[in-house]
Design a protein that fits this description.
Number of strands: 9
CATH architecture of the largest domain: Up-down Bundle
CATH class of the largest domain: Mainly Alpha
Order of helices and strands: EHEHHEHHEEHEEHHHHHHHEEHHHHHH
Shape: elongated
Largest sheet: 3 strands, antiparallel
CATH topology of the largest domain: Fumarase C, Chain A, domain 2
Helix content: 40-55%
Strand order of the largest sheet: 4-6-7
Number of helices: 19
Distance between the termini: 29 Å
Number of domains: 2
Length: 513
């Protein structure tokens, strides 16, 4: 099994995904253990002094003015975890919780939090045992960290609350720890606060969304090419010299992908043979590289923000190398929240243009010779009429999900925390948007492959033929009389979700961007 080593200098997106989705083992480096020990010595020294230090010998948030005596400090740390584990609603997905736990461990291992090495090791032990705390949908404002979600994780470290075992069964966390020989932690000064104060949930969801969106954008380039081909459109708009004079990198990459898919097509350009030749294709076809390209550039910007956050140690207060323990505002989720919202906007627009292409394939007045709704016997058969309805409903929801969460703020903690990022909410809605975009692309794929098979006497590009073969092998049926459509759409969705489109095309085209 792959092992991820956690050091003091952050982590990578690849490591996050390996732990969250691939169940990779986690180990703390010797360097991290040394840094943890040094920072803890600083915290212990400050705890022994009479002067109050936030997070070490004071209350939290609006209660930070109270000095806490030494005999109450262990209780203080336990209490912050218990009281902050106040989430509600459905359970958050296992991969999100594993990313959340791993990223918190990443910050703890930086040596800037003052957590003891034994606590960090217990965090790694939980991940390696496949124990996943129950975290709920609601409870984070994306400021002072993803407080409630991280609190539910810290609660499991204490042997309290509920968690899912490696068998998928939810049980008391204490039972699961005992079964795996893991000793519950007894938190000391600063440790409870340090386990809660980070952007780890929203960052983990950003990293996974970026991975999914990269595959989906390449998949959308392929379906756009299939639709252009099925509509007998012109591939000339994909010429690299046209995109070189507007040098957005994403646009050039999208155009190159589409051109690679269409190479050798026997369908493109046939519009000139019609009685009323088209001078140019509709925007949803002709501007596909511009829209998908802008989304690709948005992904690149979001990935830059994610890389910076992955290299960060987010806590409050932080332990500095010179021995100071200083309060700060680095837990504010604005940088992550903004790009989460930006990605939801880009994804909604990609879904919107894909739906417009699908509708064009189904409309006999605009499909250039294809049967109405790609039906076998139009009138008796409805064909893909309602598949487009489903696609339109998904697009409409994506537009609602594109409304930015980060533009909102609700004051909390008796006005001490009076401006928050709502980054967790931005991440949650982006996950829904990514799911919807997958379905939208699957429906375009379903329509475009059927349309290609209805172009009798014309030969699709070799890459298109590879897609047709792979889709049919995946259980997505081709043209014919009406049948129960939902299973076909589900199979197309599973095919796209698994990266099947890219896997089918690249043996023909070579690697796509």
């Amino acid at each position: 099994m792959h092992t991820v080593v956690v050091g003091t200098s952050g982590t990578t997106a690849e490591d996050v995904i390996a732990v969250a989705r691939g169940n990779a083992r986690v180990e703390l480096s010797g360097e991290a253990l040394e840094a943890l020990g040094r920072a803890r010595e600083i915290v212990d020294a400050l705890a022994a002094k009479p002067e109050p230090v936030y997070g070490v010998s004071t209350g939290f948030g609006a209660l930070a003015s109270r000095h806490i005596s030494p005999e109450l400090r262990a209780q203080l740390q336990r209490n912050i975890v218990r009281s902050h584990a106040a989430g509600m609603g459905p359970r958050v997905e296992r991969e999100v919780v594993r990313a959340l736990m791993f990223l918190r461990l990443k910050t703890v291992a930086s040596g800037h939090t003052g957590v003891r090495p034994s606590v960090a090791q217990t965090m790694a032990d939980l991940l390696n045992a496949g124990i996943t705390p129950v975290v709920h949908e609601y409870g984070s404002l994306g400021c002072s960290g993803d407080l409630a979600p991280l609190s539910h994780c810290a609660l499991a470290l204490m042997g309290e609350g509920d968690a899912e075992g490696p068998d998928g069964v939810v049980r008391p966390a204490g039972e699961l720890l005992a079964e795996h020989g893991i000793e519950p932690v007894e938190l000391r000064e600063k440790e409870g606060l340090a386990l809660l104060n980070g952007t780890d949930g929203m960052l983990g969801m950003l990293v996974m969304a970026l991975a999914d969106l990269r595959t989906l954008y390449t998949s959308a380039d392929i379906t756009a090419a299939l639709t252009l081909e099925a509509l007998l459109g012109s591939e000339k708009v994909l010429a690299p010299e046209l995109h070189a004079i507007r040098p957005h990198p994403g646009q050039g990459a999208a155009a190159a992908n589409m051109a690679a898919v269409l190479k050798g097509s026997g369908l493109t350009g046939h519009f000139q043979e019609e009685s009323a030749p088209r001078v140019q294709d509709a925007y949803s076809v002709r501007c596909a590289p511009q829209v998908a390209g802008a989304g690709r550039d948005t992904i690149a910007h979001a990935a830059l923000v994610a890389s910076r956050e992955l290299a960060s140690a987010v806590d409050n207060p932080v332990v500095l190398p010179d021995g100071r323990v200083e309060s700060n505002g680095n837990f504010h989720g604005a940088p992550v929240a903004y790009v989460l919202d930006f990605l939801a906007i880009a994804a909604a627009d990609l879904g919107s243009i894909a739906e417009r292409r699908t509708d064009r394939l189904l409309d006999k007045n605009r499909s250039h010779g294809l049967p109405p709704f790609l039906a076998d016997d139009a009138g008796v058969d409805s064909g893909l009429m309602i598949a487009q309805y489903t696609q339109a409903a998904l697009v409409s929801e994506m537009k609602r999900l594109a409304v930015p969460a980060s533009a909102d703020s609700i004051p909390s903690s008796a006005m001490q925390e009076d401006h928050v990022s709502m980054g967790w909410s931005a991440a949650r809605k982006l996950r829904t948007a990514v799911d919807n975009l997958t379905r939208i692309i699957a429906i375009e794929l379903y329509a475009a492959t059927r349309a290609l098979e209805l172009r009798h006497g014309l030969t699709p590009a070799p890459a298109s033929q590879a897609v047709l073969a792979a889709v049919r092998a995946a259980g997505v049926e081709g043209p014919g009389p009406d049948r129960f459509l939902a299973p076909d759409l589900a199979a197309a969705d599973a095919f796209v979700r698994a990266g099947g489109l890219v896997a089918a095309v690249e043996p023909v085209t070579g690697p796509l961007a």
